[in-house]
Amino acid sequence: MSSIYKLSISGIRSFDPGEVETIQFNKPLTLIVGANGSGKTTIIECLKYAATGDLPPNSKGGAFIHDPNIAGERDVRAQIKLAFKNVNNKTMVLTRTLQLISKGKSQSTFKTLENQLYVLNHGERTTISSKAAEVDSLIPQNLGVSKAILNYVIFCHQEDSSWPISEPSILKKRFDEIFDSVKFIKVLDNFKDIRKQFDIDIKLLHNNVKHLKEDRKRANAKKFEMEQLIKTVDEYKLEIGKISLELKDITQQMDKLFKSNQDYEKVINRIDFLKNQQITLNSQIQRIKQSLIPLPNTIEDLQNKLINFNEILNEKKTAIENKRAIIKLKTDELNVVRASYSTNIRIEGQLRALFENYKLNIEKRFQIIKENYENLDLSIHNIEDDKVILEFKDKIMKKLITNEKKLKEIIDDNNFQIQEYESNLTMIRDSKMKEEQHLQYYETDLKNYHKENDSLNFKIRMIQSDETKITSEIHLKNEEIICLEKELEEITNQISVSSRQSETLAKSSIIKQNIHQNENIIKSIIDANGKAFKEKVGIDLNIETCEKDCSNRLLSLKEVYKKEQNIYEQYNLKTYQLDRDRESLKDQISILGNELKLKKQKVEEMMQEDFEISDYEDTIDDLEKNYKIALENLNFNDTTIRFNMNALAIAEKEKHCVLCRRTFKNGELSTFLDLLRESISPRSQQNAKEEFDRIKEDLEYARALGPDILRIRSLENVEINEANLKLNVLNADYDSAKKRADEQLKSLENLESEIYAVESFFKIVADLTRLNKELESYKGQLSAIQNELTEFGASNHSINELQILQNKSSSAMKVKRQELSHLTQTKEIITRELTKLETTIKDKRLRIGELEKNLSEKVNLKKSIQENEAKLKSLENNISKTRSMTEDLAQKYNIMVEKFKELKKRNEEKELEQKAKVDYLSNISTRFNELNDIINNYLGNDSPKLEKCEQDLKSIESKIKELESQIETLSSEIIDIDKSVNVADQELRNIRDNIDFRNLQVDLESVKQETAELTLQNTESERNKYTQEASRLQKLYSDLQAQHSGKNGEITQLTIQIENLRNELKRDYNKVDEKYEKEYIKLQTKFFLSNDLSVYSKALDNAVMKYHSVKMQEINRIIDELWKTTYSGTDVDNILIKSESNSSNVKSGNRSYNYRVVMVKQGVELDMRGRCSAGQKVLASIIIRLALAECFGINCGMIALDEPTTNLDEDNIESLARALNNIIELRKKQKNFQLIVITHDEKFLSNMNAAQFTDQYYRVKRNASQKSQIEAVPIAVINA
After folding, report:
1. Which of 60, 670, 1212, 1227 could staple 1233 via S-S, CB 3.0–4.6 A?
2. What percent helix, strand, coil does the chain show, rounded to 5?
3. How many domains does the chain have?
4. Which mean pLDDT values do the consecutive 10-residue runs of the chain (1280 residues) have?
5. CA gap 1239, 1074 in Å, rounded
6. CA-based nearest residue to 727, from 595, 600, 579
7. Alpha carbon distances (Å) from 384 to 361, 363, 935, 947, 968
8. Nearest alpha carbon to residue 758 among 547, 957, 515, 961
9. Which residue(s) pair with 491 in the sheet?
10. CATH (domain of 643)
C-alpha cells in the first residue's frame, strides 16, 4: 500500500527559490487553506509533476518556474522533492530539479537538470534511476496506480477538474487511458495480424497438402494398379504353369498313343504316304507333260548339266535374298525415322505457334514504345535493340516514380493548404463568435447597468428619507439591548443554580428516545429485508452474525460460480471443438465430392457418352476381344502381305499363278498384278496398323481408368456415405453440447444475480452494524447516567416516567413529586424565556447591522452611480467597435470560405489529373514488363527449341531421302537379278522337267507295287481309331500351345507396364507419403495455433469486457451512493456514467467505448453536459473522481481535491462536507488512505468536522516580498 508523507518545494511559481517550503501529509486527512493567489494550487501541480513528469496546463516554456526577472537573477533553479512509501512499504524519495534561464525581455530557456529516484533502507540510500523516462515510468509502478489515474483522478488540476462533464472526445480519451484499453486493443490487433498471417500460411499449406494428397492418391492408384498388374502376372504365370503341365500330359499321351500304335502307324503312314505320293507323282507327270520339251539325252547327262546350272542359279538367288533382307532392314529404319519426323513436325507446329505469338508480342511492345517514345525522348529505329528496350523500361519506371512522388507532393501540399485554410477559417469563425459573444455580453451589461443605476438612485432616495428615523431607532435599540443583556445574565445565573437532577434526567430521556428510535429503525430494516435475506443467504437476518453470514454466503456462491464457470468453459470448449471437427468434416465431404466429380468428368471425357461405370468390366472384356481379333488380323495381314509379295514377284517374272502355276490370259495378268499391289500397298498396311493401334489405345485408356473407376465406386459407396454418417453424429453431439453450454450459461447468470443480490445486502448489513454499535453506545451512556443518578441518590427514570411512578407511589413521595414538577416547569419556563431573549438579541443586532450598512452604503451608492455611468459610455463604444469588427469578420469569413472552396476544387482537379498520369504510366509499365517477360521467356526457352527442331527435321528429311534412295537402288538390283534368274529358270526347268519326268515314271511304278503289297495287310480299322485320337490330341495340344503363347505375350506387355509404373512412381511421386505427412502436420499445427489464438483472443476480449462492465457497475454504484448522500437538490435523482460499445470498431474486430455522463430525472436519462448548472457540474466531477479513486486506487488510497466548493451553494457545500466526513470515517482504518483538501473556505472545514481527523492544517500565504509560504496551524483555530 503506497502513500505520500512529505513534499518540499522551492523556486516553483510564487515559491521562493532561495527557501524550501515543506508540507507533511497526514492520514487520513491533510488540509491546505489559503486565499486566492496564495499558491495552494501549486502544491497540487508539484505533486502531479513529481508523480507523472507532466507539466501543468499552459506552463510550457518555463511558466512553471519562478520568473528570473522577478527574482532579479539571470537563472532560477527550482526543486521538487517527494518522499513516499511504495506498494511494498519501502521509503522512496524522488527529486526533480529544474532551471529557467532568462535571455532577454521575452526569451527564456527551460531545462530539466536532475531526475533522481532512490530508496532509503535502514539509513542506506540506493539510487534506482536518474533517467527522466525511466523515473516517469517507475513512479506509477511504485505508487501502484496508472499514470492516467494520477493525472485525472488523484492529482487532477483545478483547470481540468471538470473533465468528466467535458465533450465526448475528451471523455473517451480520459476513460480509455484510465481503463488502459489501448494496451489491450493493441494486443488484440496484434493477435488479429498474427491470425491473418496464420490464415495465409494455412491457405498455402492447405494448397500444398491438397496437391500432395492428390499426388499421394495418384501414387496409391499407381501402386494399386501396379499391384493388380503384378497379381495378374502371377495369375498368368500360374495359368502358364497349369497349361505347361497340361501340354506335358498331352505330349505324354501322344507319345504313348504313338508307341502303342507304332506298327500300325508305320504301315498307315506308309500307305498314306504312298497314296499321296502316287497322286502327287501322277499330277506332277501330267503337269510336266504340258510344258515338257523332250530331250534326247540320257538321265546321267541331264543330271550333270543340272548340277553346274544349279550352282550359278543358287548364287543369284542367294544375292536376291540378301538384298531383300537389306531392304527390309532399311524399310524398318525408314518407318522409325518417319515416326520421328511426324513427332518433330508436331513439335515444330507448336513452336511455330509460339513464334507467331512472339512476333505479335514484339509488335505490341513496339507499339507501346512507339506510343510513348516522344514523352520519353527515345529513338525507335530498331525495336529489337536491347538498349532501347532497357532504356524505355528504365525511363518509364523513372517517370512513374517521378509522377508518383509528384502526386504525393500535390496531395501533401493540398492537405497542407486545406489545413491552413481550415485553421484560418476556424480562427476567423472563433473570432467572429467571440466578438458576437462580446457584443451580446456588452448589450446585457448595458441593460444591467441601466437597471442598477435606477435601483441605486431609488435606494439613495429611500436612505435619505429614513436617515433621521434610523438614527433615533439606533439609540432606542442600544438601550433595549443593554436591558436584554442584563436580563440574559440573570437568567443564566438562575439556570446554573437549577437542579442537576433535572438536566441529567432530560439527557437520560433523550438517550432513551435515541435508543428507541434506533431499535425501531433496526426492526424496520429487519422486517423489510429479513425475508429476502433468508431467501438469498439461507439464514435468518441476525444483527450479530449477519455480516459474517453474508460473507460466508458470498464466498460459497463465488466458489459454486467458479466451478460452474469451469464446467461452462469445458462445455464451451467441447462445443468449439465439435464445431471445428464438423466444419473440417464438411470440408472433407466437399473435397470428396469434388474428387468424385473430377473422376467422373475424367471418365466421361475418356469414354463414350453412353458409357456407364457399372458396365466397365463388360467394356474391358469387349475391348480385349477386339484387341485379340485385331492382333490376329494384323499377324494374318503380315503373312498375307509376304505371300502376296512373293506371288507378285513370281507373277511378274514367270507370268503365272504361284499356287496353280497357271499362265494368265490376255488382260488377266495386269488385273492380278494390280490387285496384288493394292493388297501389299503401304496404305493397306497403315490402315490395318492404325486400326490395331486405335483398338490397343482404347484398351489401354480403358485399363488406365481402372483405378479411377475403383475410386469412384469407393467414393460413392463408402467414403462419402461414411463421412455423412459421421457428420450427422457430430451435428447431434454439437447440438447436445451447445444445449448443455446454454443451460450452464443460464445457471451462471442465475448465480451472478444471486451474488449481486447478496452483495446488495452488504450496505444493509453495514447500516445494521452501525446502528447496533450506536445502540450499544447509547445503552452504555444510559447506564453511566443511571449510575450517576444512583450516586446522587436520584431516580433512573425521566420526568414523565417519574410522574407515572409518582401516581402509583405512596403519599409519602407526593411532596417530592410536587417539588420535582415545580422544578421542571420552572426550568422549561426559564429555558423558553432564554431562547426568546437570545432570538430577540440576534434580531436587534442584525437590524442594527443592516442600518449601519445602509448608512455606509449611501456614499458607496453615489460612487457606484458615477462608475456605472463611465462604464455605460465605455460599453457603448465597445458595442459599436464590436459590431463593426463582427461585420468585417463575417465578410472576411465569407471570402475565405469561397477561396477555400475554389482551392479545394483546384486541388482535387490537380490530384485527379496527376493520378490519371500515374495510373496511365503504371498500366504501361505493367503491360510492357509482362510483354518483356513473355518475349524473354520465348527467347530463352522456346526459340532454341525451334531452331533445334528445324535442324532435326532437316537431318531427318535427308535421312529419309537417303533411305528411300537406298531401297530404290536395292529394288532395281533385285529386279535385274530376278530377270536373269527367270530366263535361266526356263532352261533349268526344262532340264529338270525331263529328269523329273523320267524319275517320276520310275517312282510311280515303284509306289504302285509297294502300295499293292501293303494294301493286302488288315490295318484299316486300327488306322481310323488312331487317326481320330491323334486328331483330338493334336487339336487340344494346338489350343493349349496358343493359350501358352498368348499368356506369355500378355505377361511381357504387363511386365513393361509394371516397369513403366515403377519408374513413374520413382520419378514423379518419390517420398510423396512422407512429404504429405510433413505438410499435413504443419497444416494441423498452424490450424490449431490459429484456433487457440482465436480462443485466447476471444477470452481476452471477453475478460476485458467483463472487467469493464464490473468496474463500471462498481463506479456507478459508488456514484449513486455519494450523489444521494451529497446532493441536496430535488431536480436530479441520480447521475451515472454510460459506456456504449463503438459499433464502427466492433465491425473491425476491436472493442472500443464511447462514454457520457447522464443525470436521471424521474426515470429519464439525460446528457448532463449542457443541461446542468455550474455547481452541479463541479459536484458531479468531484463525485466521479471519488468513485474512480475508490475503484482504481486500491494500492494508492490518496486523492487531492482542489477548491471542491467552487460554484456550490451553501446546502450542497454542507452536503459535500458531510459526504467527505462519511468517506473519511469509513476509510480511515485503511492504512494508506489520504484525503488532501485545498480550499479558501474555512467554514467548509468546520462543516466537515475536520477536527475529528486531524490536529492541524496548513495555511498558504504570501509574505512581505509576495513569496508563498506554508505554515502549520492548529485545527482549533478554525473552530474558534
Report:
1. 1227
2. 75, 10, 15
3. 2
4. 88 89 90 89 91 83 81 86 89 91 76 87 83 87 87 84 83 80 78 85 84 82 84 86 83 70 57 67 70 72 69 74 82 80 76 78 78 62 64 78 82 77 70 65 62 62 54 54 53 42 57 78 81 79 80 83 81 77 80 81 69 72 76 67 71 66 67 72 71 77 74 78 85 86 83 77 77 80 70 49 44 47 55 58 57 55 64 69 72 75 79 79 79 79 82 83 82 74 64 72 75 59 63 74 74 82 82 84 84 81 78 85 80 83 52 77 82 82 85 82 85 83 78 86 84 88 88 77
5. 80
6. 579
7. 12, 10, 11, 19, 49
8. 547
9. none
10. 1.10.287
Query: Per the structure block, which three cell numbers stand in for 378?
Result: 527515345
C-alpha cell at 89: 512499504
DSSP annotation string for 932-981: HHHHHHIIIIIHHHHHHHHHHHHHHHHHHHHHHHHHHHHHHHHHHHHHHH
Q: Is there a domain that residue 948 lies in?
A: no
Task: Give 803-845 pLDDT, tens digit per residue.
Answer: 444 444 444 444 444 554 555 555 556 556 555 655 655 555 5
Residue 667 main-chain phi, psi, to 5 deg: 85, -20
CA–chain centroid gap for 10, Å, is 54
Distance from C-alpha of 205 to C-alpha of 964, rounded to nearest angstrom:
58
CA distances from 38 to 13, 157, 793, 1202, 1258 (A): 11, 16, 60, 13, 12
- Cell numbers for 1083, please give them: 497444416
What global pTM score does this model have? Answer: 0.39
Whether residue 430 is contained in a domain is answered as no
Task: Say if residues 402 and 922 touch (Cβ distance below 8 Å).
Answer: no
Helix (H/G/I), strand (E/B), else coil: 1274: strand
Torsion from C-alpha of 522, 524, 527, 528, nearest 10 degrees:
-110
> SS3 letters for 65-134?
ECCHHHHCCCEEEEEEEEEEECCCCCEEEEEEEEEEEECCCCCEEEEEEEEEEEEEECCEEEEEECCHHH
Domain boundary (715, 731, 762) is at 762
Taking the C-alpha atoms of 801, 807, 813 and 814 in order, what is their torsion angle to the nearest 10 degrees?
120
Q: How many residues does the chain have?
A: 1280
d(CA 110, CA 49): 15
Q: Residue 9 sits in which domain range?
A: 1-145+1197-1279
Strand-pair partners of 1167: 1158
User: Which residue is listed with cell 443564566?
Assistant: 492
Helices (H) and strands (E) in the chain, counts: 26, 14
Rounded to whole angstroms, how far apart are CA atoms 885 and 892?
Answer: 10
Question: CB–CB of 148/52 below 8 Å?
Answer: no
The owner of cell 488484440 is 188
What phi and psi, each to the nearest 5 degrees, are found at residue 985?
A: -65, -35
Residue 622, all three cell numbers? 469387349
Cell numbers given for 1076: 504429405
CA 569, CA 327: separation in Å to the nearest integer? 89
DSSP output for 481-513: HHHHHHHHHHHHHHHHHS-HHHHHHHHHHHHHH
Q: Supply the CATH number for residue 9's domain.
A: 3.40.50.300
Give 24-66 pLDDT, tens digit per residue. Answer: 998 889 999 998 888 888 999 999 999 988 888 877 777 888 8
Q: Which residues does residue 65 pair with via DSSP β-bridges, in sequence order?
A: 12
What is the crossing angle of helices 682-704 and 616-654, to 10°?
160
Burial class (CB in 10 A: 0-12, 13-18, 19+), 394: exposed
Last-in-domain residue among 730, 762, 794: 762
Q: Is residue 86 part of a domain?
A: yes
Residue 1048 falls within a domain, yes or no?
no
